[in-house]
Amino acid sequence: MSQTRSVYEFNSAIVREPSTSVVNGLRADDRGGPTYDGVKAEHDAYIAALRNAGVEVTVLPPLEAFPDSIFVEDPALVFTSGAILLRPGTPTRVEETAELAPILREMFDTVLELPAPGQADGGDIMYTPIGLLIGLSDRTDKAGAEALIACIDKLGGKAQIAETPKGVLHFKTASSLLDDETVVATTALADAAVFEGFRKIVVPEGEEPAANVLRVNDVVFASANYPRTLEMLDNKGYRVVPLKTSQIERIDAGLSCMSLRWYRDGE
Ligand code: CIR
């Protein structure tokens, strides 16, 4: 996994079409579910943005039995050197991994599996130039994080464990890598020890969900719902691509969740 390019340089991604059951996606607080059409529109715009950013996108068919299966980031991790099948930390999502496995085996020579009994969601794992950060959360436990570090080691990478603030679904719900030196985070996560050495941009109070951005090549996908964060990122010189997230936020999701991204060598 030795890295000669930025961790946000991607030429390949996998996404999955939302199923009509997405209206029943998991949520911590029910503010009313999303509509299928609303999620589909946000997802279509997301795929277009990935393609505009120079990424070849493989679109998988919807899975009615799994309302949250649009969030392909959670059941697996992908790298240039291989993929890791994870064990999502919530019962209704565990079998999503088996649904992703065939395409990953087709696309990667090496596919490892997170050994039992650990559990880990991809939403808790941040790629950075100093290695992966694995946030412990209600979805990612210590056994999962430790087993994952061993898998990442087998692929030639390194990782360290972090904490996810209480009440936050995933580590990356509240923080994201913006460039090789900079993270954007909520106040609750900005001072985390793992971010020592990074420049930090803190999202304004009231715009906490805006901390889930997605750096893809030379652009940053950011939620269109948080104007102060958009302006802040723009003022700091990032090329921001605003994308609507009103519907997916109703089921606790943000922009990173909807794809698996990697740099495929030899193309
Ligand atoms: C869930 O609770 O699993 C979904 N409703 C949202 C998953 C969001 N995934 C992510 O942040 N990586």
Write a compact overview of the structure shown.
Helix content is 21%, strand content 24%. By secondary structure, the chain is of the alpha/beta class.
The portion of residues assigned to helices is 10-25%
In terms of DSSP E residues, the strand content is 15-25%
CATH fold description of the domain at 12-167 and 244-262: L-arginine/glycine Amidinotransferase, Chain A
How would you sum up the major sheet?
A: 3 strands, mixed
End-to-end gap: 17 Å
Rg, rounded, reads 17 Å
List key phrases describing it:
267 residues; alpha/beta; L-arginine/glycine Amidinotransferase, Chain A; 3-stranded mixed sheet; 5 helices; globular; binds citrulline
Structure explained in plain terms:
The chain is an alpha/beta fold and 267 residues long. It has a domain at 12-167 and 244-262: 5-stranded Propeller (L-arginine/glycine Amidinotransferase, Chain A), CATH 3.75.10.10. It is 21% helix and 24% strand. It has helices at 36-52, 96-107, 142-154, 187-190, 227-235; strands spanning 12-16, 56-60, 76-79, 82-85, 111-113, 125-128, 131-136, 159-163, 175-179, 182-185, 199-202, 214-216, 219-223, 240-243, 260-262. The chain is globular, with a radius of gyration of 17 Å. 49% of the residues are buried. The protein binds citrulline (CIR). Citrulline binds at residues 25-26, 68, 71, 73-74, 90, 93, 122-123, 170, 173, 251-254, 256-257.
